[in-house]
Amino acid sequence: MPYPPQGAAPADIAASVWAYTARRLTNLDDVRAARIDEIVTLEEAAVGTLTADGSLQDVVELTALGTLEGHIDLVNMQAGDTVVISEYIKMKTGGTYRLYDSATYNNAQTKPSLHVVKLPGKYGVVVRLQQTAGVNRDYDYNFFREVLA
In the chain, helix, strand, coil percent, each to 5? Predict the structure, then answer.
């Protein structure tokens, strides 16, 4: 069986490593092992509701070193609605945001929880929403920042 097992969650892999008691190579005590387990942490970046108004609106912006990841709930979309979700990256201090990627969603969504995958950045990343057709809707969102402890 390959290690780690296919589909294993990172937390499960870390737990199995630290459950192994004979640490001959690292010789880590429990205190040091616990510190290593906490190297990467999640911080809440933004949680709320955005009411679309037809303009390009910031859902969340991260201006410090880290990785941004989260969800936007498209459950309120109905027939005739169109929403564009865009991701932008800033490459240097004082720089301008540049489009990284965008996707368009139309009508009611059968899978309404949109997962915005990891966006690493040092100088800035921003996720924006623009409703371009239909009745302006409310969009709940939940984003986290992954940081080194």
Answer: 10, 50, 40
pTM for the model: 0.73
**Of 123, 117, 122, nearest in space to 144 by CA:** 117
* Topology (CATH level 3) of domain 41-148: Jelly Rolls (2.60.120)
pLDDT tens string 25-82: 455 666 666 666 667 778 899 999 999 999 999 999 999 888 999 999 999 999 999 9
Inter-CA distances, 83 with 49, 66, 97, 105, Å: 15, 27, 20, 5
What are the Cα distances from residue 79, in Å, to 10, 32, 83, 86, 109?
39, 55, 12, 21, 9
**Domain range summary for the chain, segments of one domain joined by +:** 1-38, 41-148
> Residue 5: is the preceding peptide bond cis (ω within 30°)?
no
Closest CA to 109 of 83, 138, 136, 143: 83
* CB 69 within 8 Å of CB 87: no
